[in-house]
Amino acid sequence: xxxxxxxxxxxxxxxxxxYKAVYLGRELVRRGAEVRVAMTKNAAKFVTPLTFRAALSxxxxxxxxxxxxxxxxxHISWSxxxxxxxxxxxxxxxxxxxxxxxxxxxxxxxxxxxxxxxLFVPAMxxxxxxxxxxxxxxxxLHQLGxxxxxxxxGDLACGESGAGRFPEIEKxxxxxxxxxxxxxxxxxxxxxxxxxxxxxxxDSVRFISNPSTGKMGYAIAEMAVRFGAETTLISGxxxxxxxxxxxxxxxxxxxxxxxxxxxxxxxxxxxxMASAVADYTPTxxxxxxxxxxxxSMAIELTRTRDILAELGKNKGDKILVGFALETDNLIENAKxxxxxxxxxxxxxxxxxxxxxxxxDTNAGxxxxxxxxxxxxxxxSKRKIAVILLRKIxxxxxxxxxxxx
Length: 404
Hints:
- By secondary structure, this protein is of the alpha/beta class.
- It folds into 2 domains: 7-180, Rossmann fold; 190-403, CoaB-like (Rossmann fold, 3-Layer(aba) Sandwich).
- 35% of the residues lie in helices and 24% in strands.
- It has 14 helices and 20 strands.
- It has helices at residues 18-30, 43-46, 49-56, 74-81, 92-99, 106-112, 126-130, 132-143, 169-180, 215-226, 254-265, 307-313, 330-340, 381-403, and strands spanning 7-12, 34-39, 60-61, 84-90, 118-122, 147-148, 152-155, 161-165, 190-195, 200-201, 207-208, 230-235, 247-250, 270-273, 280-282, 301-303, 319-326, 345-350, 361-368, 373-380.
- Strands 13-12-9-14-17-18-19-20 form an 8-stranded mixed β-sheet, sandwiched between helices.
């Protein structure tokens, strides 16, 4: 992947992982990017500004009041110049400052003035990363429209092991490439997305469900906004912060998901059904909590209504996208579902540790109505969301060409 012509501000905060940012910066430069480095004073205690100047042949600023290169306030001029700002490593401190809107040094003021995408790459002790305050601040960054990578897990500089390790350089490169590639090509379109599981209650406290986390649907919703679409997300019960700029409707059961989708479908021209809706629900819900008395019990199940099939019958000229999680005969089963449910596009994948419900990555195939099959390698769900949205854009462009 090339970054030819990309303008990147690389922000360095005070983590031992600051030395790894030298390698990240060199790789960005090697791939054609123009890089500027903004360092905190604590970062400069781990790696000197001279190291970055020598390794990257680029401007480095710690204090904008020292040796300014022009008459503009540099935190303003740099934020306008950048196509993306990448804070790598991002400490708990810089995350907290940016979540609170604090701007008391060159890096934090540049971030506060940014109009371009801002990507935080956390690196810290696992206890600090998992601390409720840090997790709250990360959620706030998401709500402000910023991006935060999930750190790797493994051996840490402090001698402990856990979440908080600086991600591999290639992972960061891929994330930057994803964010740089987004254009507002879906402005004017309204996209309806479903995500997460449903819960089919047996009694007041027990339910039948599945391990879906909603990560795929939420990633699509997040990227749809970035593509310029007016986006509505109907979500089952998940533990994910709603994406910035998305209108969200929460539901619990398959029946409530059905009702919400049918109510919203008419107002949208694109529907992406990424939720894992239960196929069956208990015929009878017991009042209160069932007591543990008998040695065995039987629960009668009734089929839920097929939301995707119902949409396919009544979609008209809308674009309809479905998902298929299979355990065998991937392409055959996906093609069958695409035809039976009158879909325009289907994404299908096999269940595995790296492509299942709870994974941050996925891989599979995208099949369109014309029978074209595109194999998708293991990528982040955010990257796959971008690929799907581009595929939808191709369908729109093709239809526009036919109508001329």
